[in-house]
Amino acid sequence: SMEVEIISCLKDNYSYLVIDKGNNSACVVDPSESEPIIEVIEKKKVNLKFILNTHHHYDHVGGNEMLKKKFGAKIIGFKNDKNRIPFVDILLEDNEIWKNLNFEFKVFHIPGHTSGHICFYFYKDNIVFSGDTLFSLGCGRIFEGTYEQMYYSLNKFKELPKETKVYCGHEYTLQNSVFCATYDKDNDELNKKILEVKSKRDRNLPTIPSTIGEELACNIFLRAKNLKDFSKLRDLKDNF
Ligand code: ZN
Ligand code: FE
């Protein structure tokens, strides 16, 4: 079975070490920087085999070079981003199922934040790594895509089983909750979730993972009824 170790990086990034307890092999998702990852790898005595990148932004690939050099790990990214994922070795396509050792995931191309953004859905483990597309109680800024692309990318998450754990790229949940609370005040599930989020942040604990079920109930961007409502919310959030 897979264990996910949450590693804080930079100011508010999360990188994730996915460890196969059976054979101590590991993948890292979105290594922002190498040092904190190396520390956990050495502490846990695991063998880093693969580096998975959701998109090319520096705070998601900053550790690629050093981790590849030090551990001989292979770097995995989206085929359309082969020229901007540093040191990429293995190129993936939309909807591809990828298996190696006991790591097994499906790739979804989810453009909007960047044109080549993907997520990794470990369907056997009920885990999705959503990068900067779906955040807990929020969604990524639209840098390279259209509102429509982002809307359809978020819709792909809505189709995953509700119990799926969501591991995203940043600890933005508390800030995001203020926006949700402003425009969705009477949502009881949201208000309950906000109390949990505050309590975790008060103790300096991550609010991640969330679940698809919680996000469907509480995340105002997933609750948007249509593209027009979604676009309006994204604009409001950009100026919030
Ligand atoms: Zn990003
Ligand atoms: Fe980021």
Structural class: alpha/beta
The total of helices stands at: 9
Quaternary organization: single chain
In which order are the strands of the major sheet placed? 1-2-3-4-5-6
Give the ligands present.
zinc ion, fe (iii) ion
SSE order: EEEHEHHEEEEEEEEHEHHEHHH
Number of strands: 14
Percent helix, as a range, is 25-40%
What characterizes the major β-sheet? 6 strands, mixed
Shape: globular
Gyration radius, to the nearest Å? 17 Å
The poorly predicted ranges are none
Distance between the termini: 41 Å
Beta percentage is 25-35%
What does the average pLDDT come to?
Answer: 98
What does this structure look like?
There is one protein chain. Helix 5 packs antiparallel against helix 6. A 6-stranded mixed beta sheet has the order 1-2-3-4-5-6, with helices on one face. A 6-stranded mixed beta sheet has the order 7-8-9-10-13-14. With 240 residues, the chain is α/β, with parallel strands linked by helices. The mean pLDDT is 98. The chain is built from 9 helices and 14 strands. Strand 3 (25-29), helix 1 and strand 4 (47-52) form a beta-alpha-beta unit. Zinc ion binds next to loops.
